[in-house]
Amino acid sequence: YQTKLEFALKLGYSEEQVQLVLNKLGTDALINDILGELVKLGNKTETDQTVTNANTSVMREASSIESQRSESPLQEDVTEDGDSLRPIVIDGSNVAMSHGNKEVFSCRGIKLAVDWFLEKGHKDVTVFVPAWRKEQSRPDALITDQEILRKLEKEKILVFTPSRRVQGRRVVCYDDRFIVKLAFESDGIIVSNDNYRDLANEKPEWKKFIDERLLMYSFVNDKFMPPDDPLGRHGPSLDNFLRKKPIVPEHKKQPCPYGKKCTYGHKCKYYHPERGNQPQRSVADELRAMSR
User: Fold this and answer.
1) Domain tally, the chain
2) How far from the centroid of its chain's Cα atoms is residue 236's Cα?
């Protein structure tokens, strides 16, 4: 055994490899047989090591790619999505009174509306509330969850419109004007169930803006629900309405009831999915082309 071991060690093999071969062939095996098995064992070990190293490097590359995907592209997508959404200007008084069934100024309603837009990815959300709503609640002007107003003000989401007292009389600035003016200048969306008819009559551009950018809503208990079709059945979807550059769907038309048997060609007002973007000539146009 010692002779065979020394012979294998001189050739660069380890004692563990020699023992493996002797366990397989027996202690009486010839040196040539042992050498043959050592060569096979050495080749196999190198191959396994190469495969292991390759697998390790592949795993490292995959993990690095995955980490890059999880860091940069995702952040870029979130940033792009946030930047592609319009600024939101919320009529705080309208929303709070709506949530309070027109009896209570419910600050929780404002919070529900703000959270809805933040969850959608909007970064620019502003709420206007008259400053006198910071005063203590009175029987003729009940306010609930008033601490929410302070919290939203600290987060730079809520803005109090100015008011002051002159000889015991409260002088209040018109908060609706703040709302419409900021939404118009920032090219944003007004969230309110008010039509702002008095302001729409002041300036033609404000009237057009209010008609096109007013987002109404409903409260179902504590759920803020804007409509899926804010400008009516034939207008844009809610997602497109809230975006700066609307994502145009592939088709808005109703599928043609005649399908492939339609004879109107490109004059057909219905949608033909089988045509793709290629215009198709009518049967009459095809006959004219053939006769020529």
Assistant:
1) 3
2) 18
